[in-house]
Amino acid sequence: MCSGNGTNFENIVNNCPDHEVVLMVHNKRNCGAVERAEKLGISHVRIKSKQDDERIDLFKAWRVDYIILAGYMRILSPKFINAFPNKIINIHPSLLPKYKGLNAVEQALESGDKTTGCTVHYVTEELDSGTIIDQSVVPICSDDDIETLTHRVQQAEHRLLPLIVNNLEESYAIK
User: Fold this and answer.
1) CB of 69 within 8 A of CB of 89?
2) In the annotation, is 92 catalytic?
3) Which stretches does DSSP call E strand in the chain?
4) Which position among 92, 121, 151, 158 bears the catalytic label?
5) 161, 70 contact by CB (below 8 A)
6) In this predicted model, what pLDDT tens digit does every residue of 62-121 receive, in sequence order?
7) pLDDT tens digits for 105-161?
8) Domain-by-domain residue ranges, the chain?
9) Which of 62, 79, 122, 128 sits at a 20 to 30 Å CA gap from 99?
10) Which CATH fold would you assign to the domain 7-172?
């Protein structure tokens, strides 16, 4: 599921050869992920954020094993989360539990922290609070600004997320 440029989505498609990405769902009409899905030959559909029943029915019809939130910038409803228990995974641009929600990179930069990073976690009803699968640490440099630090955190996301996806069935599945 995507809302933005789709770089994490494309990264999964290109770097997880043992997993078939069958569908990309987006909630914004002109998000960059649509262009990437078309280029990659992946089916995609726009479903507005509040249309839970349609989204649930669609994922069940496609018989997906996992739902990866790859830059999906909306909070999911309890109904949606409960329809796919322990099957929804998110990547967040901070070292959770620090800086949940929006503007996490900015918060880390402004905090005076020496490091930040990204976290892959299972999605639960509480925002950015599900079981952590793994994290990647990114140093905060003295000359960093939002743009440079965001870029380095995204690079860490692009390394970490495929590692997790490639090992979902083995190491990270919650029983």
Assistant:
1) yes
2) yes
3) 24-26, 44-46, 67-69, 88-92, 115-122, 132-139
4) 92
5) yes
6) 999 999 999 999 999 999 999 999 999 999 999 999 999 999 999 999 999 999 999 999
7) 999 999 999 999 999 999 999 999 999 999 999 999 999 999 999 999 999 999 999
8) 7-172
9) 79
10) Rossmann fold (3.40.50)
